[in-house]
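Hey, quick one: can you model this chain's 3D structure?
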Amino acid sequence: MTQSEQKFIDGQFINGQWLAGEGEAFESINPATDEPVWAAKSATPEQVNDAVTAARDAFYPWADMTVEARLDIIKKFAELLGEYKEKMAYAIALETGKPLWETRTEVGAMIGKVAISEKAYNERTGTKENPMPQGKAILRHRPHGVVAVYGPYNFPGHLPNGHIVPALIAGNTVVFKPSEMTPMVAQLTVELWQKAGLPKGVLNLVQGEVETGKALANHPQIDGLFFTGSSGTGHFLHEQYAAQPNKILALEMGGNNPLIVNEAENTDAVVHDILQSAFISSGQRCTCSRKLLLPVGAEGDAILAKLIEATKAIVVGDSLAEGGDEPFMGSMISERAALGMVEAQKQLIELGGKPLVELTHLKENTGFVSPGIIDCTDIANFPDDEHFGPLLKVFRFSDFDRAIEIANDTSYGLSAGLLSDSEALYNKFLSRIRAGIVNWNRPITGASSAAPFGGVGKSGNHRASAYYAADYCAYPVASVELEQVTLPGTLSPGLSI
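Sure thing. Here's the predicted structure for all 497 residues.
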Protein backbone atom coordinates (compact mmCIF):
# COMPACT_ATOMS: atom_id res chain seq x y z
CA MET A 1 0.00 0.00 0.00
CA THR A 2 1.50 3.33 -1.02
CA GLN A 3 1.26 6.38 1.17
CA SER A 4 -1.20 7.97 -1.25
CA GLU A 5 -3.45 4.91 -0.94
CA GLN A 6 -3.42 4.85 2.82
CA LYS A 7 -6.44 5.87 4.79
CA PHE A 8 -5.12 7.90 7.68
CA ILE A 9 -6.63 7.12 11.05
CA ASP A 10 -7.78 9.68 13.60
CA GLY A 11 -5.01 8.55 15.92
CA GLN A 12 -5.01 11.40 18.47
CA PHE A 13 -7.27 11.34 21.51
CA ILE A 14 -7.53 14.79 23.06
CA ASN A 15 -10.13 15.95 25.59
CA GLY A 16 -12.33 12.95 24.94
CA GLN A 17 -12.32 13.27 21.13
CA TRP A 18 -10.58 11.27 18.41
CA LEU A 19 -8.82 13.69 16.10
CA ALA A 20 -6.61 13.55 13.04
CA GLY A 21 -3.02 14.58 13.54
CA GLU A 22 -1.87 17.73 11.79
CA GLY A 23 1.79 16.82 11.47
CA GLU A 24 3.85 14.47 9.34
CA ALA A 25 2.45 11.12 8.22
CA PHE A 26 3.83 7.96 9.80
CA GLU A 27 2.86 4.29 9.86
CA SER A 28 3.46 1.09 11.74
CA ILE A 29 4.73 -1.98 9.95
CA ASN A 30 4.18 -5.65 10.70
CA PRO A 31 7.86 -6.65 11.05
CA ALA A 32 7.04 -10.27 10.16
CA THR A 33 5.58 -9.37 6.74
CA ASP A 34 6.80 -5.82 5.99
CA GLU A 35 3.18 -4.77 5.49
CA PRO A 36 1.74 -1.49 6.87
CA VAL A 37 -0.98 -2.08 9.47
CA TRP A 38 -1.74 1.44 10.70
CA ALA A 39 -1.20 4.93 9.31
CA ALA A 40 -1.90 8.39 10.66
CA LYS A 41 -0.52 11.88 10.92
CA SER A 42 1.47 12.84 13.98
CA ALA A 43 0.40 15.30 16.64
CA THR A 44 1.87 18.76 16.22
CA PRO A 45 3.27 20.78 19.14
CA GLU A 46 -0.01 22.72 19.11
CA GLN A 47 -1.98 19.49 19.50
CA VAL A 48 0.35 18.34 22.27
CA ASN A 49 -0.39 21.64 23.99
CA ASP A 50 -4.12 20.98 23.58
CA ALA A 51 -3.67 17.56 25.19
CA VAL A 52 -1.75 18.96 28.15
CA THR A 53 -4.34 21.73 28.57
CA ALA A 54 -7.15 19.17 28.54
CA ALA A 55 -5.34 17.11 31.16
CA ARG A 56 -4.81 20.22 33.29
CA ASP A 57 -8.50 21.15 33.08
CA ALA A 58 -9.51 17.61 34.02
CA PHE A 59 -7.09 17.30 36.94
CA TYR A 60 -9.06 18.84 39.82
CA PRO A 61 -12.37 17.09 39.04
CA TRP A 62 -10.57 13.73 38.71
CA ALA A 63 -8.41 14.22 41.82
CA ASP A 64 -11.44 15.36 43.84
CA MET A 65 -13.23 12.07 43.19
CA THR A 66 -12.84 9.44 45.88
CA VAL A 67 -10.27 6.79 45.15
CA GLU A 68 -13.13 4.28 45.20
CA ALA A 69 -14.92 6.17 42.42
CA ARG A 70 -11.74 6.31 40.35
CA LEU A 71 -11.20 2.59 40.93
CA ASP A 72 -14.70 1.77 39.70
CA ILE A 73 -13.72 3.12 36.27
CA ILE A 74 -10.24 1.57 36.35
CA LYS A 75 -11.68 -1.85 37.26
CA LYS A 76 -14.12 -1.52 34.37
CA PHE A 77 -11.09 -1.04 32.11
CA ALA A 78 -9.65 -4.32 33.44
CA GLU A 79 -12.95 -6.06 32.70
CA LEU A 80 -12.89 -4.74 29.13
CA LEU A 81 -9.32 -5.94 28.70
CA GLY A 82 -10.57 -9.42 29.57
CA GLU A 83 -13.43 -9.08 27.09
CA TYR A 84 -11.12 -7.86 24.29
CA LYS A 85 -8.12 -9.99 25.26
CA GLU A 86 -7.75 -11.77 21.92
CA LYS A 87 -8.13 -8.56 19.92
CA MET A 88 -5.47 -6.85 22.02
CA ALA A 89 -3.12 -9.84 21.88
CA TYR A 90 -3.50 -9.99 18.09
CA ALA A 91 -2.72 -6.27 17.76
CA ILE A 92 0.42 -6.61 19.89
CA ALA A 93 1.56 -9.59 17.82
CA LEU A 94 0.81 -7.73 14.59
CA GLU A 95 2.87 -4.67 15.49
CA THR A 96 5.73 -6.28 17.41
CA GLY A 97 6.14 -9.64 15.68
CA LYS A 98 5.94 -11.47 19.03
CA PRO A 99 4.21 -14.87 19.14
CA LEU A 100 0.57 -14.93 20.15
CA TRP A 101 1.22 -17.14 23.18
CA GLU A 102 3.46 -14.41 24.51
CA THR A 103 1.20 -11.45 23.71
CA ARG A 104 -1.68 -13.18 25.48
CA THR A 105 0.41 -13.24 28.64
CA GLU A 106 1.10 -9.54 28.16
CA VAL A 107 -2.62 -8.74 28.14
CA GLY A 108 -3.02 -10.91 31.22
CA ALA A 109 -0.36 -8.83 32.96
CA MET A 110 -2.25 -5.65 32.00
CA ILE A 111 -5.39 -7.01 33.64
CA GLY A 112 -3.54 -8.08 36.78
CA LYS A 113 -1.91 -4.67 37.10
CA VAL A 114 -5.14 -3.06 38.34
CA ALA A 115 -5.51 -5.18 41.50
CA ILE A 116 -1.76 -4.99 42.18
CA SER A 117 -1.76 -1.20 41.81
CA GLU A 118 -4.78 -0.83 44.10
CA LYS A 119 -2.99 -2.85 46.78
CA ALA A 120 0.23 -0.87 46.32
CA TYR A 121 -1.64 2.44 46.53
CA ASN A 122 -3.29 1.48 49.81
CA GLU A 123 -0.12 0.07 51.35
CA ARG A 124 2.40 2.65 50.19
CA THR A 125 0.46 5.86 49.64
CA GLY A 126 -2.69 5.55 51.67
CA THR A 127 -3.77 7.66 54.63
CA LYS A 128 -2.34 7.12 58.13
CA GLU A 129 -3.40 8.81 61.36
CA ASN A 130 -1.65 8.98 64.75
CA PRO A 131 -2.89 10.69 67.94
CA MET A 132 -0.92 13.52 69.54
CA PRO A 133 -1.24 15.20 72.96
CA GLN A 134 -3.13 17.91 71.16
CA GLY A 135 -4.78 17.00 67.90
CA LYS A 136 -3.61 14.31 65.53
CA ALA A 137 -0.91 13.72 62.93
CA ILE A 138 -2.18 12.64 59.51
CA LEU A 139 -0.20 11.40 56.53
CA ARG A 140 -1.95 11.74 53.19
CA HIS A 141 -0.76 11.49 49.61
CA ARG A 142 -1.60 13.80 46.77
CA PRO A 143 -1.29 13.40 43.00
CA HIS A 144 1.29 15.47 41.17
CA GLY A 145 -1.06 16.76 38.49
CA VAL A 146 -0.47 16.17 34.79
CA VAL A 147 2.02 13.41 33.99
CA ALA A 148 3.46 12.33 30.65
CA VAL A 149 3.81 8.60 30.03
CA TYR A 150 6.17 7.33 27.32
CA GLY A 151 5.66 3.76 26.18
CA PRO A 152 8.19 1.40 24.53
CA TYR A 153 7.66 -0.93 21.58
CA ASN A 154 8.70 -4.20 23.20
CA PHE A 155 5.74 -4.31 25.64
CA PRO A 156 3.42 -1.71 24.13
CA GLY A 157 0.48 -2.73 26.30
CA HIS A 158 1.94 -3.82 29.62
CA LEU A 159 4.70 -1.28 30.26
CA PRO A 160 2.80 1.99 29.67
CA ASN A 161 -0.13 0.40 31.50
CA GLY A 162 2.20 -0.02 34.48
CA HIS A 163 2.53 3.77 34.65
CA ILE A 164 -0.97 4.81 33.58
CA VAL A 165 -2.96 2.67 36.03
CA PRO A 166 -1.16 3.75 39.25
CA ALA A 167 -1.07 7.34 38.01
CA LEU A 168 -4.85 7.37 37.54
CA ILE A 169 -5.50 5.64 40.86
CA ALA A 170 -3.49 8.34 42.62
CA GLY A 171 -5.58 11.06 40.93
CA ASN A 172 -3.21 12.27 38.21
CA THR A 173 -4.28 12.98 34.66
CA VAL A 174 -2.16 11.61 31.82
CA VAL A 175 -0.82 12.47 28.39
CA PHE A 176 0.32 9.24 26.78
CA LYS A 177 2.99 9.17 24.05
CA PRO A 178 3.50 5.59 22.81
CA SER A 179 6.26 4.28 20.60
CA GLU A 180 5.76 5.30 16.98
CA MET A 181 6.29 1.61 16.14
CA THR A 182 3.22 0.43 18.06
CA PRO A 183 0.49 3.07 17.62
CA MET A 184 -2.31 0.56 16.99
CA VAL A 185 -1.88 -1.05 20.41
CA ALA A 186 -1.95 2.39 22.03
CA GLN A 187 -5.11 3.31 20.16
CA LEU A 188 -6.89 0.11 21.20
CA THR A 189 -5.83 0.64 24.81
CA VAL A 190 -7.22 4.18 24.91
CA GLU A 191 -10.43 3.04 23.19
CA LEU A 192 -10.98 0.63 26.09
CA TRP A 193 -10.37 3.41 28.60
CA GLN A 194 -12.97 5.45 26.73
CA LYS A 195 -15.44 2.53 26.88
CA ALA A 196 -14.77 2.22 30.61
CA GLY A 197 -16.18 5.73 31.12
CA LEU A 198 -13.02 7.70 31.86
CA PRO A 199 -13.98 11.41 31.94
CA LYS A 200 -12.74 13.56 29.07
CA GLY A 201 -9.27 14.97 29.46
CA VAL A 202 -8.19 12.45 32.11
CA LEU A 203 -6.25 10.37 29.57
CA ASN A 204 -5.02 11.91 26.34
CA LEU A 205 -3.13 10.19 23.52
CA VAL A 206 -0.61 11.96 21.30
CA GLN A 207 0.88 9.85 18.53
CA GLY A 208 3.93 10.62 16.47
CA GLU A 209 7.66 10.36 16.16
CA VAL A 210 10.56 12.28 17.72
CA GLU A 211 9.11 15.78 17.36
CA THR A 212 5.88 14.82 19.12
CA GLY A 213 7.85 13.29 21.96
CA LYS A 214 10.05 16.38 22.29
CA ALA A 215 7.04 18.70 22.36
CA LEU A 216 5.55 16.75 25.26
CA ALA A 217 8.79 16.43 27.24
CA ASN A 218 9.46 20.16 26.85
CA HIS A 219 5.96 21.29 27.82
CA PRO A 220 6.12 23.54 30.89
CA GLN A 221 2.73 22.39 32.22
CA ILE A 222 3.53 18.75 32.88
CA ASP A 223 4.31 17.84 36.47
CA GLY A 224 6.04 14.54 35.86
CA LEU A 225 7.39 12.24 33.18
CA PHE A 226 7.42 8.44 33.33
CA PHE A 227 9.67 6.88 30.70
CA THR A 228 10.50 3.34 29.63
CA GLY A 229 13.00 3.01 26.81
CA SER A 230 16.62 3.34 25.73
CA SER A 231 19.44 4.46 27.99
CA GLY A 232 20.39 7.21 25.55
CA THR A 233 16.96 8.84 25.58
CA GLY A 234 16.63 8.35 29.32
CA HIS A 235 19.95 10.08 29.97
CA PHE A 236 18.91 12.97 27.74
CA LEU A 237 15.68 13.37 29.72
CA HIS A 238 17.60 13.20 32.99
CA GLU A 239 19.87 16.03 31.84
CA GLN A 240 16.88 18.02 30.61
CA TYR A 241 15.07 17.70 33.94
CA ALA A 242 18.13 18.22 36.15
CA ALA A 243 17.26 21.90 36.55
CA GLN A 244 13.58 21.16 37.19
CA PRO A 245 13.34 19.68 40.70
CA ASN A 246 9.65 20.56 40.72
CA LYS A 247 8.94 17.73 38.28
CA ILE A 248 9.01 14.02 39.11
CA LEU A 249 11.02 11.87 36.69
CA ALA A 250 10.87 8.06 36.64
CA LEU A 251 13.17 6.23 34.20
CA GLU A 252 13.54 2.57 33.28
CA MET A 253 16.32 2.21 30.73
CA GLY A 254 17.35 -1.36 30.10
CA GLY A 255 20.32 -3.43 31.14
CA ASN A 256 23.41 -5.43 30.25
CA ASN A 257 22.33 -8.33 32.40
CA PRO A 258 24.55 -11.20 33.62
CA LEU A 259 23.58 -14.82 34.31
CA ILE A 260 26.10 -16.99 36.19
CA VAL A 261 26.06 -20.79 36.26
CA ASN A 262 28.08 -22.68 38.86
CA GLU A 263 27.58 -25.98 40.69
CA ALA A 264 24.23 -26.80 39.07
CA GLU A 265 23.60 -30.52 38.56
CA ASN A 266 20.57 -30.53 36.23
CA THR A 267 22.06 -29.50 32.88
CA ASP A 268 18.74 -29.63 31.01
CA ALA A 269 17.11 -27.31 33.55
CA VAL A 270 20.08 -24.93 33.36
CA VAL A 271 19.86 -24.78 29.56
CA HIS A 272 16.12 -24.15 29.73
CA ASP A 273 16.57 -21.19 32.07
CA ILE A 274 19.35 -19.79 29.88
CA LEU A 275 17.16 -19.98 26.77
CA GLN A 276 14.28 -18.29 28.59
CA SER A 277 16.61 -15.60 29.91
CA ALA A 278 18.40 -14.83 26.65
CA PHE A 279 15.99 -15.43 23.79
CA ILE A 280 12.41 -14.86 24.92
CA SER A 281 10.78 -11.98 22.99
CA SER A 282 13.68 -12.34 20.53
CA GLY A 283 15.93 -10.91 23.23
CA GLN A 284 13.90 -7.69 23.30
CA ARG A 285 13.21 -7.53 27.01
CA CYS A 286 15.19 -5.11 29.10
CA THR A 287 15.77 -7.94 31.61
CA CYS A 288 17.09 -10.45 29.04
CA SER A 289 20.47 -11.97 29.78
CA ARG A 290 23.22 -10.44 27.64
CA LYS A 291 26.14 -12.14 29.41
CA LEU A 292 26.35 -15.84 30.28
CA LEU A 293 29.14 -16.78 32.67
CA LEU A 294 30.16 -20.47 32.66
CA PRO A 295 32.91 -22.16 34.66
CA VAL A 296 36.01 -23.45 32.91
CA GLY A 297 36.00 -27.26 32.86
CA ALA A 298 33.61 -30.18 32.42
CA GLU A 299 30.53 -28.53 33.93
CA GLY A 300 30.74 -25.46 31.72
CA ASP A 301 31.63 -27.54 28.63
CA ALA A 302 28.59 -29.80 29.08
CA ILE A 303 26.23 -26.87 29.56
CA LEU A 304 27.63 -25.03 26.55
CA ALA A 305 27.35 -28.09 24.28
CA LYS A 306 23.72 -28.63 25.27
CA LEU A 307 22.97 -24.90 24.96
CA ILE A 308 24.37 -24.75 21.42
CA GLU A 309 22.27 -27.74 20.41
CA ALA A 310 19.09 -26.32 21.95
CA THR A 311 19.65 -22.85 20.51
CA LYS A 312 20.01 -24.23 16.99
CA ALA A 313 16.67 -26.04 17.50
CA ILE A 314 14.70 -22.92 18.52
CA VAL A 315 11.66 -22.41 16.29
CA VAL A 316 11.54 -18.91 14.79
CA GLY A 317 8.45 -17.83 12.86
CA ASP A 318 5.27 -15.81 12.48
CA SER A 319 2.57 -17.09 14.82
CA LEU A 320 -0.06 -15.20 12.79
CA ALA A 321 0.79 -17.15 9.63
CA GLU A 322 -1.33 -20.17 8.82
CA GLY A 323 0.17 -23.60 9.46
CA GLY A 324 3.51 -24.52 11.00
CA ASP A 325 4.59 -24.87 14.61
CA GLU A 326 3.99 -22.21 17.21
CA PRO A 327 7.35 -20.42 17.38
CA PHE A 328 9.33 -19.66 20.50
CA MET A 329 10.78 -16.57 18.83
CA GLY A 330 8.95 -14.22 16.53
CA SER A 331 10.28 -11.28 14.59
CA MET A 332 12.32 -8.45 16.02
CA ILE A 333 10.63 -5.07 15.86
CA SER A 334 12.07 -4.14 12.46
CA GLU A 335 14.53 -5.10 9.77
CA ARG A 336 16.71 -2.25 11.00
CA ALA A 337 16.84 -3.81 14.46
CA ALA A 338 17.62 -7.22 12.95
CA LEU A 339 20.47 -5.84 10.84
CA GLY A 340 21.73 -4.01 13.91
CA MET A 341 22.18 -7.35 15.68
CA VAL A 342 24.04 -8.76 12.68
CA GLU A 343 26.36 -5.74 12.82
CA ALA A 344 26.84 -6.10 16.60
CA GLN A 345 27.88 -9.73 16.12
CA LYS A 346 30.34 -8.70 13.41
CA GLN A 347 31.91 -6.07 15.66
CA LEU A 348 32.35 -8.54 18.52
CA ILE A 349 34.02 -11.03 16.18
CA GLU A 350 36.41 -8.30 15.03
CA LEU A 351 37.29 -7.67 18.67
CA GLY A 352 38.18 -11.33 19.20
CA GLY A 353 34.83 -13.03 19.86
CA LYS A 354 34.31 -16.59 18.63
CA PRO A 355 30.87 -17.35 17.15
CA LEU A 356 29.40 -20.56 18.56
CA VAL A 357 25.96 -20.17 16.96
CA GLU A 358 25.78 -17.56 14.23
CA LEU A 359 22.97 -15.01 14.41
CA THR A 360 21.63 -14.59 10.89
CA HIS A 361 19.04 -12.37 9.26
CA LEU A 362 16.52 -14.94 8.03
CA LYS A 363 14.34 -12.99 5.62
CA GLU A 364 14.88 -9.75 3.74
CA ASN A 365 12.60 -6.82 4.65
CA THR A 366 11.59 -8.46 7.95
CA GLY A 367 12.83 -8.55 11.52
CA PHE A 368 13.42 -12.30 11.61
CA VAL A 369 16.79 -13.42 12.94
CA SER A 370 18.05 -16.69 14.33
CA PRO A 371 19.42 -16.61 17.90
CA GLY A 372 23.17 -16.34 18.26
CA ILE A 373 25.84 -17.23 20.82
CA ILE A 374 29.34 -15.79 20.79
CA ASP A 375 32.25 -16.56 23.14
CA CYS A 376 33.67 -13.23 24.32
CA THR A 377 36.09 -14.53 26.94
CA ASP A 378 39.16 -13.35 25.04
CA ILE A 379 37.91 -9.85 24.25
CA ALA A 380 40.24 -7.52 26.14
CA ASN A 381 38.04 -4.43 26.20
CA PHE A 382 34.50 -5.73 26.08
CA PRO A 383 32.10 -2.93 25.06
CA ASP A 384 29.45 -2.14 27.65
CA ASP A 385 26.62 -2.01 25.11
CA GLU A 386 23.06 -3.27 25.50
CA HIS A 387 22.57 -5.38 22.37
CA PHE A 388 18.80 -5.44 22.35
CA GLY A 389 18.21 -8.74 20.62
CA PRO A 390 18.91 -12.50 20.70
CA LEU A 391 22.70 -12.41 20.87
CA LEU A 392 24.12 -14.10 23.97
CA LYS A 393 27.73 -13.40 24.97
CA VAL A 394 29.56 -16.21 26.82
CA PHE A 395 32.39 -15.69 29.30
CA ARG A 396 34.32 -18.52 30.95
CA PHE A 397 35.63 -18.08 34.50
CA SER A 398 37.99 -20.01 36.75
CA ASP A 399 36.59 -18.96 40.14
CA PHE A 400 33.34 -17.53 41.46
CA ASP A 401 34.82 -14.22 42.57
CA ARG A 402 36.01 -13.65 39.02
CA ALA A 403 32.49 -14.43 37.72
CA ILE A 404 30.99 -11.76 39.96
CA GLU A 405 33.68 -9.33 38.84
CA ILE A 406 32.78 -9.92 35.17
CA ALA A 407 29.06 -9.69 35.97
CA ASN A 408 29.50 -6.34 37.69
CA ASP A 409 31.70 -4.95 34.93
CA THR A 410 28.89 -2.84 33.49
CA SER A 411 27.47 0.62 33.99
CA TYR A 412 23.98 -0.91 33.96
CA GLY A 413 22.32 -2.67 36.89
CA LEU A 414 18.85 -3.97 36.07
CA SER A 415 18.70 -7.76 36.43
CA ALA A 416 21.07 -10.60 37.28
CA GLY A 417 20.78 -14.25 38.12
CA LEU A 418 22.55 -17.31 39.45
CA LEU A 419 21.85 -20.93 38.47
CA SER A 420 23.39 -23.03 41.22
CA ASP A 421 22.50 -25.73 43.73
CA SER A 422 24.64 -23.98 46.34
CA GLU A 423 22.83 -21.65 48.72
CA ALA A 424 26.20 -20.40 49.97
CA LEU A 425 27.12 -19.27 46.46
CA TYR A 426 23.75 -17.54 46.10
CA ASN A 427 24.17 -15.68 49.40
CA LYS A 428 27.57 -14.45 48.23
CA PHE A 429 26.14 -13.51 44.83
CA LEU A 430 23.19 -11.68 46.41
CA SER A 431 25.46 -9.62 48.64
CA ARG A 432 27.88 -8.58 45.87
CA ILE A 433 25.93 -8.30 42.62
CA ARG A 434 24.83 -4.81 41.60
CA ALA A 435 21.31 -5.06 40.22
CA GLY A 436 17.74 -4.18 41.14
CA ILE A 437 16.37 -7.63 40.23
CA VAL A 438 18.32 -10.68 41.45
CA ASN A 439 17.01 -14.21 40.78
CA TRP A 440 18.18 -17.64 41.93
CA ASN A 441 17.48 -20.71 39.80
CA ARG A 442 14.90 -18.84 37.76
CA PRO A 443 15.13 -17.02 34.41
CA ILE A 444 16.15 -13.41 34.95
CA THR A 445 13.25 -12.16 32.84
CA GLY A 446 10.82 -13.37 35.50
CA ALA A 447 10.07 -10.17 37.37
CA SER A 448 6.87 -9.97 39.42
CA SER A 449 4.49 -7.02 39.09
CA ALA A 450 3.81 -7.45 42.80
CA ALA A 451 7.43 -6.46 43.52
CA PRO A 452 9.43 -3.36 42.64
CA PHE A 453 10.94 -3.29 39.16
CA GLY A 454 13.99 -1.18 38.46
CA GLY A 455 17.71 -0.92 38.57
CA VAL A 456 20.71 1.26 39.23
CA GLY A 457 23.36 2.93 37.10
CA LYS A 458 22.31 3.35 33.48
CA SER A 459 19.26 1.16 34.17
CA GLY A 460 17.25 3.78 36.03
CA ASN A 461 17.17 6.74 38.37
CA HIS A 462 16.35 4.89 41.59
CA ARG A 463 12.60 5.06 41.08
CA ALA A 464 11.53 1.46 40.74
CA SER A 465 8.25 0.80 38.92
CA ALA A 466 5.74 -2.09 39.21
CA TYR A 467 4.68 -2.30 42.87
CA TYR A 468 6.69 0.83 43.71
CA ALA A 469 5.08 2.93 40.98
CA ALA A 470 2.73 4.21 43.66
CA ASP A 471 5.71 5.99 45.19
CA TYR A 472 6.32 8.29 42.22
CA CYS A 473 2.63 8.77 41.34
CA ALA A 474 1.88 10.72 44.53
CA TYR A 475 3.72 12.88 47.04
CA PRO A 476 3.29 12.74 50.84
CA VAL A 477 1.50 15.49 52.76
CA ALA A 478 2.11 15.50 56.52
CA SER A 479 -0.42 17.38 58.66
CA VAL A 480 -0.89 18.16 62.35
CA GLU A 481 -4.57 18.89 62.93
CA LEU A 482 -6.86 20.11 65.71
CA GLU A 483 -10.56 20.76 65.18
CA GLN A 484 -10.45 24.28 66.66
CA VAL A 485 -7.84 26.80 67.65
CA THR A 486 -6.88 26.09 71.29
CA LEU A 487 -4.61 27.93 73.69
CA PRO A 488 -2.08 25.52 75.21
CA GLY A 489 -2.21 24.93 78.94
CA THR A 490 1.34 26.18 79.36
CA LEU A 491 2.84 29.01 77.32
CA SER A 492 6.42 28.89 76.04
CA PRO A 493 8.97 30.85 78.08
CA GLY A 494 8.96 34.52 77.24
CA LEU A 495 5.34 34.62 76.07
CA SER A 496 2.38 36.33 77.75
CA ILE A 497 -1.14 36.44 76.32
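One thing worth noting: Residues 67 and 160 are 21 Å apart (CA to CA).
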